[in-house]
Amino acid sequence: MVRASLFWAIFGLALASQQRLPVPDPLSQLPLEGYSERPNIVFILTDDQDLHLNSLDYLPHVQKHLIAEGTSYKKHFCTIALCCPSRVSLWTGKAAHNTNVTDVNPPYGGYPKFVSQGLNDNFLPVWLQNAGYNTYYTGKLFNAHTVDNYHSPHVKGFTGSDFLLDPFTYQYLNSSYQRNKDPPVYYEGEHTLDVLAGKAYGFLDDAIKEEAPFFLAIAPVAPHSNVAIESLEGDVEDFVANFSPPIPQDRYKHLFKDVKVPRTENFNPEKPSGVNWVRSLQRQSQKNVDFNDHFYRNRLRALQGVDEIVDGIVSRLKKHELLDNTYIIYSTDNGYHIGQHRLEPGKECGFEEDINIPLIIRGPGVPKGLSTEIVTTHTDLAPTILKLAGAPLRADFDGDAIPVSESGIEEAKTVRHEHVNVEYWGFALGEGKEWNGQSMSRFHHNNTYKGLRILGDSYNFYYSVWCNNEHELYDLNNDPGQLVNLLDKRSKAVTLFGHSLTKVVARLDSLLFVLKSCKADSCIHPWRALHPLGNVHNLHDALSARFDEFYEVQQKRIEYTRCEAGYILDAEGPQFENDGLVYRYGSPWSEWV
């Protein structure tokens, strides 16, 4: 039976190649080898957790139970550095420009936008239930999921749910949870992580009692800022909200008294960096830096409650003899910066601190203590979870399942894609305090951009185009702090890893041109969209001299018509499939000549 399935999968691959259809993975629909029972899956999703500020180093249970017993994916990226659109991409396997959920609140984002786009009927828990899984969720789901609209409609797809609700989501000592179809319950004076832990363990008990395999998602707000929202009316910059450092449980308030934000090269640099509004930032005062160190310490303290939950889940799975048949996935919605590039605490940028985030997986067949640098993204997680569950994958996924076996990871080093599509619309927000100690909520407008991360054997670049049509290019092999924009008019760079700068940028721009509006297979295999016969697989291949005219003369360039706060197509400039572009290389046979 397996041999027959494999035959038809390979036959389909050949047929797809002839007809220019998306190419399926011939092994993606085969049952997991070596495991007679379908595995359980626990997903722990934190909020705003960094990788580059070393937060994982301060979590002993994560280190013991997950990092030592699983695989760390060091080059895992969110594709939009903002919680709600990033979470929607995670649960749907689609880029934000395809979900059209691009903000935290209406009109461009939030739970109402998720519903209006038809996604409440078409996301991961619904697919898992269709595959025979019981599904449970507790914690934060989306922004603008409130005490007033939680039933309009109820979230679909969960056997059991207990959601944090706005406007109390980020209030560590005044949270509101809403269970199944019951009205909200308020937990004034109780720490949200203690409340969440009880709910998570309760759902785990419920799941264990059933005979079906289960999926359990646990989504704490830590280490997000504490936010007291007084009004949700109007545009996001009109909200009345007070930001302050996260509040840890009392038992952890004494920890890390001397810890400071890592003083990397890009921390509060003497010279400005970046483009657009980032380049105009003033250097932080010592008083500002001291407050941000305090802010950082409270993030680490707040994460201790999450670390407790990791230990509690692992202990209970072990007690019930389920640990060996359970995948545990640990990640976050987006990264975080504190002081890098002179930025106040926050996210929403394309810098590495904001988009390169933790991903750890342990479970059946997953190598222990392994660290890999294969490129993975949040749009890959829904396909990954479905594949682990033995459920059908979807043809419209913008992501590709992440390999979790040693052989799969090894193979991915040579065959997996090397790119990440990064995008953002709207505002950026500073969540700290001004040097004089006054509470602030700093908005930066026109923070709309398209970005490309590309990592190969000898290159490691970030390229972006902003809505004011400023451009950035960083060589992270030689400039890991992204301080030197090679496209700045003051830059003296003329070559890049043995090629002219102009030649490299032309390829990067064309690749991003595909990705900025890609769908399904063109998101996974963008070089194939440019070279349909498939003999260009990476940047090295594309730099062949025979493609110079194609990339440097024939192609249109990315440019915005104007800045907008959401995905409005006529503001996005030329599109890959429209405008009469020369976007594919030659005739069907010209690539072989």
From TrEMBL:
Q: Glycoprotein: is it a keyword of this entry?
A: yes
Q: Which GO terms describe its biological process?
A: phenol-containing compound metabolic process
Signal peptide coordinates: 1-16
A Pfam family matched by this chain, by name? Sulfatase
Q: How is it modified after translation?
A: The conversion to 3-oxoalanine (also known as C-formylglycine, FGly), of a serine or cysteine residue in prokaryotes and of a cysteine residue in eukaryotes, is critical for catalytic activity.
Q: Which reaction does it catalyse?
A: an aryl sulfate + H2O = a phenol + sulfate + H(+)
| SUPFAM superfamilies the UniProt entry points to | Alkaline phosphatase-like
InterPro entries noted in UniProt: Alkaline_phosphatase_core_sf, Arylsulfatase, Sulfatase_CS, Sulfatase_N
Where does the record place the Sulfatase N-terminal domain? 39-391
Note the superkingdom of the native organism: Eukaryota
What are the protein's UniProt keywords? Glycoprotein, Hydrolase, Signal
Residues bearing PTM 3-oxoalanine (Cys): C83
Q: What are the EC numbers? A: 3.1.6.1
A GO molecular function assigned to this protein is: arylsulfatase activity
Recorded family membership:
Belongs to the sulfatase family.
Q: What name is this protein filed under?
A: Arylsulfatase
